[in-house]
Write a structure and sequence with these properties.
Elements (H helix, E strand, L loop, with lengths): L2 H18 L3 E6 L2 E11 L6 E10 L5 E3 L6 H5 L1
């Protein structure tokens, strides 16, 4: 139900933090450079937020793409 909002929020926060340099470099390999970016989401019950580290790949043109496998995990933490 919230998947569209979650996708947009992940991308919004990641792009904002990437532009500010608010990330940690991860490993680099044949797939590219990885970045770790902290994402903050509100809890569904309205009491506080949850923070976690998401993984992103940087492409040669400077764009980033989510690389963290999130299936089933968000329901456990939000």
């Amino acid at each position: 139900m919230d998947s569209q909002w979650l996708q947009e929020e992940f991308v919004r926060q990641a792009n904002e933090k990437y532009a500010k340099g608010d990330f940690s470099l991860g490993k680099i390999d044949s797939f590219g450079q990885r970045l770790d970016i902290e994402i903050t989401l509100p809890r569904k019950n309205g009491t506080g937020t949850v923070n976690f580290i998401s993984g992103w790949l940087v492409y040669p043109d400077g764009s980033i793409q989510l690389a963290t496998h999130m299936e089933g995990k968000l329901n456990e933490i939000i």
